[in-house]
Specification:
CATH class of chain B: Mainly Alpha
Number of strands of chain B: 0
CATH topology of chain B: MetI-like fold
Order of helices and strands of chain B: HHHHHHHHH
CATH architecture of one domain in chain A: 3-Layer(aba) Sandwich
Number of strands of chain A: 10
Largest sheet of chain B: none
Helix content of chain B: over 70%
Largest interface: A-B, 31 and 22 residues
Shape of chain A: globular
Distance between the termini of chain B: 55 Å
Largest sheet of chain A: 6 strands, mixed
Strand order of the largest sheet of chain A: 6-7-8-3-9-10
Order of helices and strands of chain A: EEEHEEHEHHHEHEHEEHH
Number of helices of chain B: 9
CATH superfamily of one domain in chain A: P-loop containing nucleotide triphosphate hydrolases
Helix content of chain A: 25-40%
Shape of chain B: elongated
Radius of gyration of chain B: 22 Å
Oligomer: heterodimer
CATH architecture of chain B: Orthogonal Bundle
CATH superfamily of chain B: MetI-like
Strand content of chain A: 25-35%
Number of domains of chain B: 1
Distance between the termini of chain A: 37 Å
Chain lengths: 254, 227
């Protein structure tokens, strides 16, 4: 069962980022990266820090402006001048390593803000929708708490609910569990797993290799701003073609 | 005993107080009205300038920074005198109260711009990203996510600034604004007694103490999430 309508994208790709380049000053962080994601897929981005995973994710909703390449969501050109990027961003959820909840708002306020300001819902509509999504991540009973009163795992689940409530076509997650204490990681992974089971399309930059192995449809290994190798989780973890990929996987699995 | 009596006669003279009370009370209303004008326009303009600065447009930032630095550097009395005695030479004659308002409003705008700007820049960039990623516009993000956090950080330094700049309303007496000190001063010259000044001082405390209390309350109100 899908959470959002299955889009009829051209060539079957929901997100199609081709030859994405990004330069900061003199440094080229992305040197022409392709990322194609089908509806319902869970794609894992792996690679050493500094490989460009975060930048690639931020380029996908133009939080960072790509310096080159093409970018389409559900057939809409995200880089076109005529495209309303704010409208498109609503359709691309984003979850952050450091949660980035709004500290001055309650959990409910965090989830309802964009529902009210972007989707122009009434307070009652927004709160009903927020509660629904907070239930999905097991945080409904904390609706009136402030972020500072929550554990990291709880904050991240609220972060997921915040993007989920906007009914996005896909969600980008930038190391969603890296800032968490080990015993809190599982609660967040469980939520991600349940989203996957509901058919949510996700691209996740993460070092949770066991989870990737179990849950990812595809794994993309990125290094120095280039895709070294990509394939199914099975292929990458048991039969990587490049020595660099094998070496990286050995390192992260100590 | 003799000295004590003279002291009381000079500073706490009931007859004088009774006679000049209405005059000084008039000054109180002028001070309150001018103070409100200065605080509202100064803080509003300061926040507006800081918000404009977030747009990151060079052609806008340079004049803002110039304005802010100049008005923070100039002594308020110098600004007041330049406007009051200078502008008539180019044909602009403003009432002394307006000159006082503009001068102190500009000084407060300059200082509060810096305070708000410091607040805005200390909000983590992740807050901008999170909000923009949900489809909120730049303006919505600034207004609903960034400014509330910046204002919280700004309140303590801002109240201090506001109080110290608003106290400069007394400088209005130099250009004939009939605020508290101006009224007390003329009462002093007419009565040859310092009691009107004592009354003036008392009224200043009466005006500014609530402001200090209000700032405490605001500080408490902006402490969210129990820390």
């Amino acid at each position: 069962m899908l959470m959002s309508a299955t889009p009829a994208a051209s060539q079957g790709f929901l997100l199609e980022a081709l030859q994405i380049r990004k330069t900061f000053g003199q440094t080229e962080v992305l040197k022409g990266v392709d990322l194609q994601v089908k509806a319902g897929e869970l794609v894992f981005l792996i690679g050493p820090s500094g490989s460009g995973k975060s930048t690639l994710l931020r380029c996908c909703n133009r939080l960072e402006e790509p310096t080159g390449g093409t970018l389409k969501l559900d057939g809409t050109d995200l880089l076109a001048r005529s495209t309303d990027i704010n409208e498109m961003r609503r359709k691309i959820g984003m979850v952050f390593q450091s949660f980035n909840l709004y500290p001055h708002l309650t959990v409910m306020g965090n989830v309802t803000l964009a529902l009210r300001k972007v989707m122009k819902m009434t307070k009652a509509e927004a709160e009903a929708r927020a509660l629904e999504n907070l239930k999905l991540v097991g945080m409904a009973e904390k609706a009136s708490s402030y972020p500072s009163q929550l554990s990291g795992g709880q904050q991240q689940r609220v972060g997921i609910a915040r993007s989920l409530a906007l009914n996005p076509m896909m969600i980008l997650m930038d190391e969603p569990t890296s800032a968490l204490d080990p015993e809190l990681v599982d609660s967040v992974l469980e939520v991600i797993k349940s989203l996957r089971d509901r058919g949510m399309t996700m691209v996740i930059a993460s070092h949770e290799m066991n989870f990737a192995r179990n849950a990812a449809d595809r794994v993309v290994f990125l290094e120095n701003g280039l895709v070294v190798e990509s394939g199914t989780a099975e292929q990458i973890f048991t039969d990587a073609q490049h020595e660099r990929t094998r070496q990286f996987l050995r390192q992260v699995r100590h | 005993m003799e000295t004590w009596n003279r002291f009381v006669f000079t500073f706490f003279n009931a007859d004088i107080a009774w006679r000049y009370w209405p005059t000084i009370l008039e000054g109180l209303w002028v001070t309150i009205a001018a103070g409100l004008l200065v605080v509202v326009t100064g803080v509003t303009c300061g926040m507006l300038l800081a918000s404009l600065r977030t747009l990151g447009i060079r052609a806008l930032n340079i004049p803002i920074i110039l304005f802010v630095d100049i008005f923070r550097a100039l002594p308020p009395l110098a600004i007041i005198l330049v406007i009051f005695f200078g502008l008539p030479n180019v044909g602009i004659v403003l009432p002394s109260l307006v000159v006082l308002w503009i001068s102190l409003g500009a000084v407060l705008a300059a200082f509060s711009e810096e305070v708000f700007w410091a607040g805005i820049t200390s909000v983590p960039p992740g807050q901008w990203m999170a909000s923009r990623s949900t489809g909120m516009t730049f303006g919505q993000t600034l207004f609903h996510v960034i400014l509330p956090q910046a204002v919280k950080l700004a309140i303590p330094p801002l109240t201090n600034r506001t109080i110290s700049i608003t106290k400069n309303l007394a400088l209005g007496s130099a250009i004939g604004v009939n605020e508290i000190l101006g009224q007390a001063n003329s009462a002093l010259s007419m009565s040859s007694n310092a009691t009107p000044l004592t009354m003036g001082a008392f009224l200043y405390v009466l005006v500014f103490a609530p402001l200090i209390l209000a700032s405490r309350m605001l500080e408490r109100r902006y402490q969210w999430g129990g820390h």
